[in-house]
Backbone:
């Protein structure tokens, strides 16, 4: 019995590490397009007055990415095979839209395209919260700050339209 528990624990650690890398890779991809553009004339001229200072964003996003990692991890380890497929699809779409928001907004300076990506992010966060609630309530609760931030980001993004 002891051997099986050790293997399970090792597998869970590996699962967590893989999820962590995937989630933070999406964040890193987006940050490539953000960091050099938050001081651009286009952004500074158009950003709404309720925009937090630049230093707030990496702090908030690091916390949110960690909460997303935990949410995905708890849902994954508790889900069955079919649920894992749906979890992978929902989180995959969410993370892809999340990763591409920054290049759409900052690099292409297309607030409309970025807003469409943001609506996909919002829809998938709501979908994930609803879907994983029956699998792992903690997974859904961990995404509530992400949902709140995405709504706030939507307000900021909409101000550019």
Residues:
């Amino acid at each position: 019995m002891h051997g099986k528990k050790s293997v399970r624990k090792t597998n869970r650690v590996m699962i967590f590490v893989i999820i962590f890398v995937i989630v933070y890779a999406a964040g890193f991809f987006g940050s490539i397009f953000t960091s050099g553009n938050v001081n651009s004339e286009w952004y500074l001229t158009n950003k709404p007055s309720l925009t937090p200072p630049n230093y707030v964003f990496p702090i908030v996003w690091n916390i949110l990415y960690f909460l997303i990692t935990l949410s995905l991890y708890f849902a994954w380890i508790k889900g069955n095979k079919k649920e894992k497929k749906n979890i992978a699809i929902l989180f995959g779409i969410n993370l892809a839209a999340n990763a591409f928001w920054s290049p759409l907004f900052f690099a292409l300076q297309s607030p409309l395209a970025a807003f469409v990506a943001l609506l996909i992010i919002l829809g998938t966060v709501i979908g994930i919260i609803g879907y994983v609630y029956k699998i792992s309530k903690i997974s859904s609760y961990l995404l509530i700050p992400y949902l709140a931030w995405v709504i706030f980001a939507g307000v900021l993004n909409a101000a550019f339209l």
